[in-house]
Amino acid sequence: MAAMAVNDTNFDSVVLQSDVPVLVDFWATWCGPCKMLSPIVAEIASEAEGFKVCSLDVDECGEIAAKYNVNSIPTLIVFKGGEEVARRVGFIQKPQILSMIQSV
């Protein structure tokens, strides 16, 4: 199962109002490292228990990316209770991503 796509219309309800932590992958179609990270994020999404995994295309949702100061991609942000609680920028491996989620 792929990560759930979020955008300007559903970001607040899916991510900020979630009752479980949410990992959001900020990416773009032209980004090489994003393409490398995508299958890892999809794998984590398919195994997710107790948290959600979402993806946000920064070219389509520039205002949200700007609001969270996403200046480089890929950027992974974990939200809990509507607040950012963890962030990593650049390509990272599955164990580091899982560690981000488990630390919240």
Overview features:
about 100 residues; alpha/beta; Glutaredoxin; 4 helices
Structure, described:
This protein has 104 residues and is α/β, with parallel strands linked by helices. The protein has one domain: Glutaredoxin. 36% of the residues lie in helices and 26% in strands. The protein has 4 helices and 5 strands. The chain has a 5-stranded mixed beta sheet, with helices on one face. The protein is globular, with a radius of gyration of 12 Å. The two termini are 23 Å apart. The model has no long low-confidence stretch (mean pLDDT 95).
**CATH homologous superfamily label:** Glutaredoxin
Compute the number of structural domains.
1
CATH class: Alpha Beta
CATH topology: Glutaredoxin
Give a nutshell description of this structure.
The protein has about 100 residues and is α/β, with parallel strands linked by helices. Helix content is about 35%, strand content about 25%. The chain starts with a strand and ends with a helix.
Topology:
Layout: E1 4-5, H1 11-16, E2 22-27, H2 32-47, E3 52-57, H3 62-67, E4 75-80, E5 83-89, H4 94-102
Parallel strand pairs: 1-3, 2-3
Antiparallel strand pairs: 2-4, 4-5
